[in-house]
Amino acid sequence: MLLGLPRRVWTWSRRNTQTSDVLRTTIQGSLYVGVFASATDQVSLVGLPTDASTVAALEDELGVPVVRCSIGGANTLGALAVGNETGLLVSDRLTDDERATIEEAVKSPIRTLPGRINAAGNCLLVNDYGAIAHPDLPDHAIDVVRDALEVSVERLRIGGMRTVGTAAVATNHGVLCHPKVTDDELDTLEEVLDVRADVGTVNYGSPLIGSGLVANRQGFVAGEQTTGPELGRIEEALGFLG
Asked: By residue range, what is the domain housing residue 211?
């Protein structure tokens, strides 16, 4: 689990928090909450089968409206959508009816990511200051990301992983990364996203941060098996202790 992870040294002004009160849950029966839900500072998207009690809990924890929808008929919204204050990017399998459902709640423009690599939530890591992209994302797709989100974009692997949205979670206050991330990768993340970056795990030792965590600047939701020490690392890395 957390034992032996590399540590980035930061100075934080610690406030009182109770990690036991953080929502640890499943979505659609899965610990991989980051696969089934996507969050920005304006809205959260979850799959159609998500029950009303989970929707209410997500709204309470993340402080934003939660929209039940699908993208291309799929309910893995965390894998297929990502956004910031400026825009929302989704897989180009989005149908007209699905777009209409999302547009009712999302104030930002919705754009689709073209090409073979178009699971936007998996292949992009974004906040309001920058975007990290799958290293094989083609130039025309990078242009779409840059235009839609109005940020600079850098291709990168994180801990050897190309699916950067699976390897990390970013907000406007911090980034939590796969424990095998290198120092050079951490430096690039901090430079592009303009926030502190640190390492951790979720769901009792899983390194796939983006699969087991949903976060925005208001709060976060972790997979049901995420431990107390892991929650503490999440709170610290994403700025909830400062």
From this structure: 23-237
